[in-house]
Amino acid sequence: MVDVAKWVDSTVRRRSAKEALEDDSRRSRVVLAAVEAIEETGPTVGMAQIAERAGLPRPNVYRHFASKDQLDAEVTRFAANELLRRVRPNLARTGTPREVIGGVIAPCVDWAAEHPNLYRFVAAQQQTKALHRARMGRTRFLNELVEAMHGYLSGSELNGEPPDGVLAGLMGMVDASIIWWLDHEDETRDEVVERLTRQVAGVLFDLLAQLGLEIPEDMVFTPRA
Prior knowledge:
Blueprint: H1 4-41, H2 47-54, H3 58-64, H4 68-87, H5 97-114, H6 116-124, H7 129-136, H8 140-150, H9 164-184, H10 189-210
């Protein structure tokens, strides 16, 4: 004899799981459509263009995202993860502080050059709590970079964690410099990487000093001859 209650319950669970997968698939399709539209037309792309690219009626998009801000946050998170994927392998490299920091800055600059509109979109997001959390994912590699720099230094342990505000400000400086370069092309790619490497190093070493680590004089960055 069939246990009708169990059969119905099992059927409902299977249907719910299928609907959840379909919903996730449609959400992903909308996010990817938004990314493609931004890359092609710029950061100010509208919901109608995104819906058309996703192959969905505009009202259907709002079944998956309550607002354009919510979709923007998902696009920001996607782009941040893509950038981190490009940067992360360079965090394991060895070398001088200049080489390690430059090894992180260079892929940022290269990714921005390959995805200029998407980079501008992420950098331009308003600092609401939701978008700030998504955007702060981009500073995880800066936290790891602080730890990598700590590995070069002897002495006491770090007296605290790098403040998010400092890292966010540092990311803002990097954003502004890269976007200026994208807009004006008044430096070569190598020149902008070299300049940002010096500037980021200066902030990071100052931060490490504030966290209780002595910075040897030979660690101080000077321009290359």
